[in-house]
Amino acid sequence: MPATTPPAAATPRGDDSWKITAKLAKAERENRIWWSFEFFPPRTAQGLNNLYDRIERMSDLGPEFVDITWNAGGRSSDLTSSLVKTVHNYFGLETCMHLTCTNMPREKVDTALKDAKEHGCRNILALRGDPPAGESQWEAHAAGFTCARELVEHIRAQYGDYFAIAVAGFPEGHPESTEGREKELEHLKAKIDAGADFIFTQMFYDFDIFAKWVKEVRAAGITVPIIPGVMPIQNYGGFERAVARFRTFVPQYFHDALEPVKNDDQAVRDVGTQLVGDMCRKILESDLGIRGLHIYTMNLERGSRMLLDYLGLTPSVNQIKQLPWTPSLTPKRREEKIRPIFWANRAKSYLSRTETWDEFPNGRWGDARSPAYGDVNAYGVSLNLTDAEARELWGAPESLDDVKALFQKFCSGDLKALPWSDTPVAKETSVIGSQLEKLNGRGFLTINSQPAVDGAPSDDKVHGWGPSNGYVYQKAYLECFVAPERLDEVIAHFDRNPQITYHAVNAQGDMRTNTQSDAPNAVTWGCFPHSEILQPTIVESISFLAWKDEAYELGRKWATVYEPSSPSRKLLQGLFDSWFLINVVHNDFKQPDAIFKVFESLGAETNGTNGHANLPSGTAAVNLEVCEAYAFKSDEVTNTKMHLAMLGRFSFVVALDLLLPTACAFKSAELTDNKLDRRLKPFTCKSDELTNTKLHRRPRNVTFLSVSSLTSP
């Protein structure tokens, strides 16, 4: 078992015992199994605060070290350095800091290395990194490095043996490589020859593939330690996203075991723990000479704890140094009202509220306060397809109609993926599939949705999740891209419905919303035996702003799979540079179709069609020859702008107020500046002009008719 947690308040050190290489050698001499954890920088400040609390708890599981990722493009460099510093100074854990070549000039690399040394970090994982933001292909920075080998050489030249340096190995082959296994082994050996000390592997689920690769590595003359990377199965959706993101092979027996329970999150975790745990046992008991595991935690706690417990590796209480309960420095902990009273038993039984409140992150909208917020995409935004695969899947759209058709095909199940969803449409989407198809056909490009659910059993094949014998609930939710010229009309319509909550934001971060609160709006919750209410899926402003960067980045990456001068690239770049991303929640979950009725009631012009769409609630529409008649039965008509847009289709329109003895005659072409054309008589209006796009008279039961259906007034 691992030694007692190292003392806190670590300082910069020259003692090589803090290198991972020294720790692994010591563990080998003691003939003990060891493990380590990986964390990524959360997207939000509150998520970071809560990650510190999580790392503090997970340090009691006895990791040999932790490593901290560096996001694609170096965007999280400052946060990575801050995490490394805090983990040292407050938790006394050794760290390994990721460092990539992506968007990193030598000067920035040197700054990162200098900060790492000052913070006491003795270990670096040198990586090439993912393609920069907005690009589908990796390109070296003009003043940077072209590959991980060059980065290793630079670190050695600048710092000698101060740092232990790790590099990445790919048992299943690098996802972007087309060179073949032998060439990849040559690249790996070149990194070792340049000065790398040990190897972290990409995640895998097939022991045989891993074992074969290890033997090939050894046969190539590489003798440094190999650390296998394993990822606990937290829930079925997350598992599918991870294997798609990293193109990981999954043995059929994994699918056979998980498929029957995929709608029961707790059962998925139990079965997944056994599957991954059995694979880990094979590794540790094999003749490969490997006695350690590197766990990709995804910033979640319970799955890692369960895996270690299944393997019999959870430290016992008397092996963990006991400390008094002192308040945390994080804002959330200062206000904490619940902590276990039996502190001495927490190594195995401490399951506080904050350990499990985000452990079933089924939807995109997890809580931004969660350190796990960001999920697998924290490792870089990717389409999970090569450019050729993307073009084959999505063709080459050259018009908005082409784009709408692709979204419709995905909603109907005829297209297996979109940039925002790399797995086929979820089963529950079939419940609202036809409505989604219509919505996309009208120009609302949906990228996420869920139907309203009122107390479905937790083992329901379509809507179920969580432990058995419970009930689950959902508010209807839609997320879509909207053309900027239509946003005002859409929002004005939403504002008239008290059950609607919305957020709208563009790529530049300009946001509009009808909620003034930063509090989360739970859109999925569940009631389970012997458990408090679980709320795994929420909508809140801070989460939406964090997500919008990724949403637009995925759209831009779609554009980059086409040639720069192509119509497809220009179309998609223009769309994702200018369109708004909106999310809409209908808060009455007992009305399953209400959210779609809101969209259906938008005016003809605002829905992006040719004017033959449904009108506001309580409205009758009758087709007369090539035109339409519109009857508005609302108490007032205040949004003249919307009505004028609709009437602009007709050369002459008569407005007849059924409650008045005279009629109002308008010529729509003269109303573009909101002024009343008085040349046509008779008319009734309390003002000579329509100001602020509001009718001064509030007519009741007004009927707008096409001229072809009327005689002259």
Automatic annotation (TrEMBL):
Organism, as annotated: Tilletia laevis
Annotated GO biological process: methionine biosynthetic process; tetrahydrofolate interconversion
Pathway participation: One-carbon metabolism; tetrahydrofolate interconversion
Record bears the keyword Lipid metabolism: no
InterPro entries assigned: FAD-linked_oxidoreductase-like, Fadh2_euk, Mehydrof_redctse-like, MTHFR_C
Annotated MTHFR SAM-binding regulatory domain residues: 321-602
MF terms (GO), sorted A to Z: FAD binding; methylenetetrahydrofolate reductase [NAD(P)H] activity
UniProt KW Flavoprotein keyword: yes
Gene3D superfamilies the record matches: 3.20.20.220
Pfam families found in the cross-reference section: MTHFR, MTHFR_C
UniProt family annotation: Belongs to the methylenetetrahydrofolate reductase family.
Stated name of the protein: MTHFR SAM-binding regulatory domain-containing protein
Keywords: FAD, Flavoprotein, NADP, Oxidoreductase
A GO term from the CC aspect: cytosol
NCBIfam families: fadh2_euk
Essential cofactor(s): FAD
